[in-house]
Design brief:
Number of strands: 2
Shape: rod-shaped
Mean pLDDT: 81
Structural class: mainly alpha
Number of domains: 2
Number of helices: 6
Helix content: 55-70%
Order of helices and strands: HHHHHHEE
Strand content: under 5%
Strand order of the largest sheet: 1-2
Radius of gyration: 37 Å
Length: about 170
């Protein structure tokens, strides 16, 4: 009886992680181990043309996977960018609605009095910081000065050294 030669070649990975990487590459390319090794050995032995090289197949699969990831990430970024723009626009609208009514001296006076009554002491910059976008509210500083003058005249506030304003009940 003729002796049958075993054509089996064993493959030992350097580590468990290396084995997982190798199996992931095989899964990406859709090849089985024997096809992959056969292609690599044919390439090594025959020096075949580059089109048959298994490494190219692996790189192509990796490139295709990365292009897919880039496309997914670009779509997610576009969606999030659009949501951020909508949120910013909505916030701008809310701020505009809130401060549209505060340009009136009566509303500013009510806001300043409310804050002074509820606080221990404030400075003029603190009062100015109550109003978001205070630089864009027309005539805000003169209106606050007028409100403070009226409150001082009525004896409702006292400004101490250092510029701290206290409410007098």
């Amino acid at each position: 009886m003729a002796e049958r030669k075993d054509k089996r070649v064993e493959f030992h990975a350097r580590s468990a992680e290396h084995k997982k990487q190798f199996e992931a590459i095989l899964e990406e390319t859709g090849q089985i181990k024997s096809e992959f090794f056969r292609a690599c050995m044919d390439q090594l032995v025959s020096g075949g043309d580059d089109d048959d090289h298994a490494g190219i197949v692996v790189r192509d699969a990796k490139i295709a996977r990365l292009e897919g990831e880039i496309e997914e990430l670009s779509a997610a970024l576009f969606t999030k960018d659009k949501a951020l723009k909508m949120t910013r626009d909505e916030l701008t609208g809310i701020r505009a609605e809130k401060f549209r009514g505060l340009t009136d001296i009566v509303h500013i006076s009510m806001e300043v009095e409310r804050v002074l009554e509820s606080s221990v002491g404030l400075t003029r910059p603190d009062l100015l910081s109550l109003f978001e976008d205070s630089m864009h509210i027309e005539n805000l500083v003169p209106m606050i000065q007028q409100v403070m003058h009226n409150l001082e005249r009525r004896g409702k506030v006292l400004e101490l050294d250092g510029g701290v304003i206290h409410w007098i009940p």
